[in-house]
Prior knowledge:
elongated, mainly alpha
Amino acid sequence: METGNETLDSEDGKEDETTDNLVEGVIQDVSTEGVEETVGEVLFKCRQLITMIRKSTMLTAFVNATRAEINQAKTNKITRNLSLDVRNRWNSICYLLETLMMFGDILNALFRAKTTYDITTRKREKLTTCAQ
């Protein structure tokens, strides 16, 4: 057997030609330019959002009330709290992102209710910048 375009002898003595299509459709020139900056910006916004929620009693109350409502309806209850990553712990960024994914419905409800919920204009603007 050979790689690339190869010929194989079949049982009846005829040669069958096969084509190596392992690289067909695969993007080989992937530019990672700007990826680190984009990931850094996303993590910054996630940290900023969590910090803002944890510092505000109104936002924390909203998140906890919404979590309680969702936990009553679901069998998979959200038991985690929103917490920041610790930069010298290797898995804490993954834990932060997993937690944000679990809180996805709650955060969506927060962003939908930000105009009607009783928070300051400054916090409302900060929530808007976190969502962009």
